[in-house]
Amino acid sequence: MRQHGIRAQQRELTRQALLREGRRLFSDRGYGAVGLADVVQAAGVTKGALYHHFAGKADLFRAVLEELQQEVGRRVAAAADAHDDPWTRLTAGCQEFLTATTEPEVQRVMLVDGPAVLGWSRWRAMDEAASARHLADALSSLVDAGIIAPQPVQPLVHLLSGAMNEAALWLESSSDPEDLEHTRAALGRLLQALRIG
Questions:
Q1: pLDDT per residue over 16-31, tens digit each?
Q2: Pair 41, 67 in one domain
Q3: Which of 4, 65, 93, 102 could form a disulfide with 80 if both were Cys (CB 3.0 to 4.6 A apart)?
Q4: pTM for the full model?
């Protein structure tokens, strides 16, 4: 029984090494410039070990993307949860999303290569699973509290999510360090327009 536990732990360590090195390589070079040989060499494992955990390069990339989306989601939730006021929770969460997505590895893996590698529909489904539910909950709370006018929440979720993703992509190509602050200010004004009174 103990031997089984040790093997399971070794398998998990191998999986984590593959994810860590895949993430580093995909974010540094981009998906197209990374081969499986690069990943297994960096992780210090065999191709057989990689295929034990992942169906191939795209599957490893999907796992790396999912891990990044979850991390960004946790950052957004932590920023929102630091506040009691529901309006501040929404604005803090949205602003943290924008800030988190300016990190180069997040931009390249999550926003640039993600849709290209997985296809728009699959990428969008993963994006919704990772963050849209939280945004929908926050907006629903604000509608229920009368802070935002009564309306269907899903259109707002998609509009805000799309706007923030597009802003993050634009920031990825920007060379002006002030653009993040300008974009954060614009997002604040956009959100404020939703508020009643």
A1: 999 999 999 999 999 9
A2: no
A3: 93
A4: 0.88
Choosing from 14, 32, 54, the residue where a domain stops is: 54
Yes or no: say if 88 and 40 are a contact pair by the CB < 8 Å rule: no
Q: Where does residue 163 rank: exposed (0-12), middle (13-18), buried (19+ CB within 10 A)?
A: middle
Reduced to 3 states, what is the DSSP secondary structure of residue 175?
coil
Region for 149 from its dihedrals, namely left if φ exceeds 0, alpha if ψ lies in -120 to 50, beta otherwise: beta
For the chain, how many structural domains are there in total? 2
Q: Residue 26's domain is classified under what CATH number?
A: 1.10.10.60
Range of the domain at 33: 1-54
CA–CA gap between residue 162 and residue 94 (Å, rounded): 12
**Phi, psi (deg, nearest 5) at residue 195:** -80, 140
Percent helix, percent strand, percent coil in the chain, to nearest 5: 80, 0, 15
41-79 pLDDT, tens digit each: 999 999 999 999 999 999 999 999 999 999 999 999 999
